[in-house]
TrEMBL record:
Location(s), subcellular: Cell membrane
Keyword Nuclease among UniProt keywords: no
Membrane topology: Multi-pass membrane protein
Keywords: Cell membrane, Membrane, Transmembrane, Transmembrane helix, Transport
Secretion signal span: none
Pfam families assigned to the protein according to its UniProt record, in alphabetical order: MFS_1 (PF07690)
Highest taxon of source: Bacteria
PROSITE patterns tied to this protein: MFS
Official protein name in the record: MFS transporter
Major facilitator superfamily (MFS) profile domain location: 7-394
Keyword Nucleotidyltransferase attached: no
Main location: membrane
Database matches in PANTHER family: LMO2377 PROTEIN (PTHR43414:SF3), MULTIDRUG RESISTANCE PROTEIN MDTG (PTHR43414)
Length: 409
């Protein structure tokens, strides 16, 4: 087996472990907050959004820094730091004695959050532009497979063993994934051209801002994440409203996993289709599809209806991350790819920050069903953003970078 294939298999397996373990705690995070005291529903919903979203505040600022470091020293050190850092943070979450303490642990976790995006960038950097969509779609299947089983296992463990032991087990598994990367991954160093241009950070930022496609896709990335994450912290509470069962955590986990099934079934297909007909065309279709499937979730009367709609929604959103990442791979020069993807990851984390707080605010004032309607409209807005960008003339990113560099001199 050649080194590149072995690296790919290690990344897929470690993604599976990390994604599965981190999503173990998602179905019961709001229930865990509820267990820390005698709180009102409004208090729990508000803090569920804050605790869920605060992790991404630090990650928002750290992603471009990690990306620039990766361009210079490689992705493997970043993966190791992120893996062990996440493991320690989740272990500490199980020791929290108050909601504010849990809040600050999640904030600390944000500094080292980014194992999955970094692994996407790692694989993208060693993949040809022509096959980036299919390869990244395959990689997406590894992380989504983890999210498929993680919520169910996490919900079952929470109901059986309690929250604290679930946090401990989660941290151990993520530590094992980091250890696998440390021992088994051998990064193939990218050979830089002797004439490779070194761009200042300011030039790269200005270049992104003036490149219509890159900047608009980054905005779309944030809007997609807002749409995805606005409901996630509230889903277990919504499930509780739809069932009289005592195993709410388990049923919430199954509902989470329905989205994962849709992801895993179609992620590779969407990526391969993007390689063939263009990532922009696939992304526009997926945005409309997501809009169509998220709105009816506000009007379900039975839990099985919600599960079916989450499955269909998962089919649509499953292709969005590999498609946008492959698009970044196509546009960004290899020597600054890590930093460019770092900024794209920052926009993803910006959506992760706004989404839970936005969803918590909407549900607190109007109710959880309204979150589906309000956030569903964001997919429609994203579609309009992309159609507007596609109607404009194409730009070469390196030409834009050189123009911005000349302006600054």
């Amino acid at each position: 087996m050649d080194r590149q294939k072995k690296n790919f298999l290690i990344i897929i397996f470690s993604n599976f472990l990390v994604a599965g373990s981190t999503t173990m705690i998602m179905p019961f995070l709001s229930l865990y907050i509820e267990s820390l005291g005698n709180f009102s529903d409004e208090y729990v919903q508000r803090w569920a959004g804050l605790v869920f979203g605060v992790t991404f505040v630090a990650a928002l600022f750290m992603s471009p820094i990690w990306g620039r470091i990766a361009d210079k020293y490689g992705y493997k050190p970043i993966l190791i730091i992120n893996g062990f850092g996440i493991a320690i943070s989740i272990f500490l979450m199980g020791t929290a004695e108050s909601v504010p303490e849990l809040f600050f642990i999640r904030l600390f976790m944000g500094v080292v959050t980014g194992f999955i995006p970094t692994s996407l960038a790692f694989v993208s950097s060693q993949t040809t532009k022509e096959t980036a969509g299919k390869t990244l779609g395959t990689l997406q299947m590894g992380s989504v497979s983890g999210t498929l089983f993680g919520p169910v296992i996490g919900g079952l463990m929470a109901d059986t063993f309690g929250f604290t032991y679930t946090f401990i087990i989660t941290s151990v598994v993520i530590g094992i994934a980091a250890l696998i990367v440390l021992v088994g991954l051998k990064e193939i160093k990218r050979t830089k051209s002797k004439n490779a241009h070194v761009y200042a950070r300011k030039t790269i930022i200005q270049g992104i801002l003036h490149h219509r496609l890159l900047f608009n896709v980054m905005i779309i990335t944030a809007l997609i994440q807002i749409g995805n994450f606005s409901i996630q912290p509230l889903l277990s509470l919504y499930v509780a409203q739809l069932t009289d069962s005592s195993q709410v955590a388990l049923l919430a986990g199954i509902t989470f996993s329905a989205t994962g099934i849709g992801n895993i079934l179609f992620a590779r297909r969407w990526g391969r289709l993007g390689d063939q007909i263009g990532y922009e065309k696939v992304l526009t279709f997926l945005l409309i599809l997501a809009f169509v499937f998220i709105i009816p979730q506000a009007f379900v009367g039975e839990l099985w209806q919600l599960m079916v709609l989450r499955l269909l929604f998962g089919i649509a959103v499953g292709g969005m991350i590999p498609t946008t990442t492959a698009l970044m791979r196509r546009e960004a020069p290899i020597d600054i790819q890590g930093e460019v993807m770092g900024y794209n990851t920052s926009f993803r984390f910006l959506g992760n920050i706004i989404g839970p707080m936005f969803g918590g605010a909407v549900s607190g004032f109007i109710g959880i069903p309204a979150v589906f309607i309000v956030t569903g409209s964001l997919f429609l807005v994203s579609f309009l953003f992309l159609k507007y960008t596609m109607a404009k003339p194409e730009q070469d990113f390196e030409d834009v970078l050189l123009e911005e560099e000349l302006k600054s001199n």
